[in-house]
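User: Can you predict the 3D structure for this chain?
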Amino acid sequence: MNERIIRVGFIGLGTMGDPMSSNIAASGEFDLALFDVDHDRARELAGRVGASAVERVADLADREVIVMMLPTSAIVREALLDGDGAPRIPARPGTVFVDMSSSDPTETVETGEALHRAGYALVDAPVSGARERAVDGTLSIMLGADDAAAAERAIPVIETMSSRIFRTGRLGTGHAMKALNNFVAAAAFTAASEALAAGADFGLDPDVMVEVFNASTGQSFVTTHVLPAHVVGEQYASGFALPLFTKDVRIAQRVQQAAGREAPVCDAVTRVMGEALDALGNVDHTRAFEFWRDR
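Assistant: Here is the predicted structure, written as structure tokens:
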């Protein structure tokens, strides 16, 4: 138990932010205040977990660590900075902002520089593990920071949500790692979807195919956690939206381009994910299988 209660703010209470912030509250070690653009959602969650709710991000000014779990880095910037780059939250010097969203690393660095000029620190700490592990508090965290002391102040909060923290390097490297990880996951999903569709056309039983994948070299998180229930089982409810997955793959493509590398697999996965998104819109990402199967 900490010698004193650290004041923590949490911005963004959606699919992932709800269970993540709930685990911070459940630790009993922090004074937690919640903000979401849906004020009713913030109030309901606050009542459920024993936190407080605020109706403006500026009302988080007394927080020492402020966590964001938002859809994009552009929304993170909009939440934290006004059009001139000045902070929206008049926090005390030394406040640590923790961006756990799937953000563009270049934009993360730009936001971090603006916050640094105002006397604050930003660390990026994106997550992997989907909602199931967010609920369990066992997410994997990729932590990037320019300010080692700021990272150390954030870690006790992050630990309530995670089973493992990987220190990836300077600010922005966490978000780069997250995007590259999700590109690998997307490549596995597109490949598995192609294989299932081709196998079904050839007369193979999809359930048997998944069993073989998982007993063989084709095994991956996709074949063990995604295909059985959400594709073969037709639940299509993994909790990871197609627009967000596609966004992450596009970020990975930009990381590849910034490195000056040819990336034919990433380019191909980005293209087919984009085609599915254009056709289907805001659906669970597993619905992309139906699009690829039927076209």
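The chain has a mean pLDDT of 96. The two ends are 56 Å apart (CA to CA).
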